[in-house]
Amino acid sequence: MIDMMLLAILIGAGLVVFSIFTSLVAFRFGAPLLLILLGIGLIAGVDGIGGIEFANVEAAYFIGSIALAVILFDSGLGTRLKTFRLAAAPALILATLGVVITAALLAVPIYYILGVGWLEALLLGAIVGSTDAAAVFFLLRVGGIRIRERVRATLEIESASNDPMAIFLTMTLVSVLAAGEIGAQDAVWTFASAFLLQMGVGLAAGLFGGGLIVQTVNRVTLETGLYPIVVIGLAMCNFAVASMLGGSGFLAVFVAGLIAGNVPMRGAVMLRRFQEGLTWLAQIVMFLVLGLLATPSEFPQIALQAVLIALALILFARPLAVWLCLLPFGFRRTETTFLAWVGLRGAVSILLGILPIIGDLPNGQTLFNVAFIIVLSSLLVQGWTIRPLARQLGLIVPPRIGPVDRVELELPGNARHELVTYRIAKESPVARGERIPRWARPSLIVRNGRSMRIHEAGRLGAGDYVYIFVPPNFISLLDRLFASPAELSDADEDYFGAFTLDPKRPIGDVARSYGFEVNEENAELSVADFLRKRLGGAVGRGDRLTLPPVELIVREADDDHRILAVGLGLEPSGDSPARIPFFYSSREIAGGIRNWLHRRRQRASAPPQETKKKPGKDS
Questions:
Q1: What is the mean pLDDT of each run of 10 residues along the chain (619 residues)?
Q2: What is the pLDDT of residues 310-319, one digit of tens each?
Q3: Which tens digit of pLDDT belongs to each residue from 219-242?
Q4: What positions does the domain Transporter-associated occupy (predicted)?
Q5: Which of 9, 61, 283, 606 counts the most CB atoms within 10 A of its CB?
């Protein structure tokens, strides 16, 4: 017994370590990390070279649920309110209504391709209806893909918050199918009541749990290393209590993380480091367990149908759902195209595929296998193409600054400052003699291994280490002083424009200077106000407005989305109908309708033309 236990520990720990080292492939080649981890699980599983037999679906769902709760808590913890405000409305519409529309649209091809009933088709659509947060966060944050702020924020918030809706739909449909025959009216009532209960209780539990975490950490004195453990323990309690009360525990932990991550909290730096490592472990364990659970020898008999459904999801259901949900928000065609394509399916879809098996549905194993193949297809087709597509669509944003070498050290207690260490980069503003602001307090300089005070050091130079006390919200401002300059390329100038405009200048003056037209009612607006009005909603860096023959580009915007700098491009790089002949925005649709009505009125008011008489025999 002891030998078997030790062997299990050896195999489990070995797989985790092996997964960590093979993840270097993902960092080096841009491969989807989830694909690699699932591949390791499949290779180690019953049909692979490892030959490990693991068929306990209840244990797999239990482990996966805990891991997903940890991941969602970290997603909320890492979502800044600035980001949330920037894209909350479109992202939450995608995370709720978008999942429903995707599942409903995908149910049609599933019904005809798999030959299952409509409810089972809708169930499979719900299982694969959500975007995977782990895959999206890895590609955008760890993978270093810098895209326009509003697009990035929409993707991150949607992927982090759409799992509760997919889980709700899946669990409710499994319950309805397990109950047998049920009338349409009863089904509608079941869905409505379950939705209100799960989302209402989940939201309330998340708000309470987030406040409890903050108050506990800030008011109770503990050993330093215990604070992260208390936080994750309270988060898991929040998940369990919300679920026991009939609510969505996954929504509860995400909301709790969102609150805790945006309020000053003791041990925040240590908590972020601990949570980052724990989230990596949760992702690796979940992916390995789901890979071990699969039986690849069963895939060939259903592979063709599953791939066809995956293509229907990638090319039809997801794009149409995204376009319909984003119509009111003024996204450009390139942005909608990118959001539609980056609908990576991942571990959550495989985890939800276990529920039909647990519910003892007749086609439960088939639905699980199809969901697994759909995930693999999504990662293979979409996961490798995100960076090239973003570059092709012109959504890659040049970096604000070059590399910065910084280490944050949190002070004990509830201090309002942090101790930050910078290594001065060559050609950085500080190395060129720029003064450190008064609100930053340099306390120590380390030069060639020797420590000295700031007044002893004289002029700072490249390679010096500077220890500075600074409020946490000012750290990003200091980064600009200590970083190496970003390399400016022709592509950067094309992206941000060759000229800079004063955002306070009246747009009418700019229009007269550069030969484009604006309405008289807008002529007195400043360039910044005009951009905010035309773009709609919160404005982010990289947003652009085409006004032939020029293009206005937001170069910089602050945390409150005030436009600080505007670029002007003389050769607009806006969406080309020849390149993207679909995903028309609401403004383009409204303009097309107005033009059609105008032409119709012109034809109706035009005087009738006399028709010439054809010469006949009498003439």
A1: 76 80 64 75 84 87 91 86 80 92 95 91 93 73 70 84 88 85 68 86 93 91 86 95 90 92 82 87 87 89 94 94 90 88 86 91 91 91 82 74 60 65 83 79 85 82 85 75 62 65 87 83 86 76 78 78 80 54 76 80 72 50
A2: 999 999 999 9
A3: 888 887 888 999 999 999 999 999
A4: 492-572
A5: 283
Max Cα–Cα distance, the chain, nearest Å: 116
- Any bridge partners for residue 494, and if so which? none
Contact assessment for residue 530 and residue 548, using Cβ atoms and an 8 Å cutoff: no
Q: For residue 519, give every residue at least 6 positions away whose Cβ sits within 8 Å of its Cβ, in sequence order, or none.
A: none
Q: From CA 156, how far away is CA 95, in angstroms rounded?
A: 11
Q: Which CATH number characterizes residue 554's domain?
A: 3.30.465.10
3 state DSSP class of 447 = strand
C-alpha distances (whole Å) from 575 to each of 408, 492, 542, 548, 579 are 42, 18, 14, 12, 7
Q: How do 465-470 and 499-501 pair as beta strands?
A: unpaired
Count the residues in the chain: 619
516 - beta bridge partners? none
Q: How far is it, in rounded angstroms, from Cα 531 to Cα 507?
A: 9
Mind giving me the DSSP string for 147-198?
B-HHHHHHHHHHHHHSHHHHHHHHHHHHHHHHH----HHHHHHHHHHHHHHH
3-state SS class at 506: strand
163 vs 334: CA distance, rounded Å: 26
The token pair at 451 is 């420590």
Tell me what pLDDT residue 30 has. Answer: 55
Q: Which two tokens stand for residue 28?
A: 């080096």
Same domain, yes or no, for 372 and 465?
no
Distance CA 442, CA 459 (A): 13
HEC assignment per residue over 327-395? HHHCCCHHHHHHHHHCCCCCHHHHHHHCHHHHCCCCCHHHHHHHHHHHHHHHHHHCCCCHHHHHHHCCC
pTM, whole model, 2 decimals?
0.78
d(CA 257, CA 234): 11
Out of 551, 572, 593, pick the residue that ends a domain: 572
* Domain presence at residue 170: yes
Same domain, 280 and 381: yes
- Between CA 427 and CA 86 the distance in angstroms is 33
280 SS3 class: helix
Which residue shows structure tokens 């489990």? 12
Q: How far is CA 487 from the centre of its chain?
A: 27
Mark whether 216 and 81 lie in a shared domain: yes
Query: How many domains does the chain divide into?
Result: 3
Q: What is the dihedral of CA 282, 288, 290, 291, to 10 degrees?
A: 160
